[in-house]
Design goal:
Length: 94
């Protein structure tokens, strides 16, 4: 089975530049740990709504663990709008 992960969240607009650098660090850490490349998207017309996309994940359990560990270590939540979480969705490829 192969999976795709979509993580979306609202960032504090005042911290956007620093957040983008940190997300690039997260992508590098995830690629090193899992071999999966991440992509960053920002919603058209709502530039503080961001989405990380990770495609073709073979080991979903390892990936989720590595993502949680890296996001905690890099303190990604410090860039979110107060009171808002990161949402994760995982889809199976048929």
């Amino acid at each position: 089975m192969v999976y795709s992960f979509y993580i979306y969240y609202r960032i504090d607009p005042a911290k956007a530049a620093d957040c983008e650098r940190r997300i690039r660090e997260l992508f590098a850490a995830m690629h090193k740990a899992t071999g999966v490349f991440g992509q960053l998207m920002k919603k058209r017309g709502e530039s503080n709504l961001w989405m990380e996309i990770y495609l073709n994940v073979a080991d979903d359990t390892k990936f989720e663990w590595e993502l949680a560990e890296a996001a905690d270590r890099l303190n990604i939540t410090e860039f979110l709008l107060p009171g808002t979480p990161r949402h994760m969705e995982c889809f199976e490829h048929p």
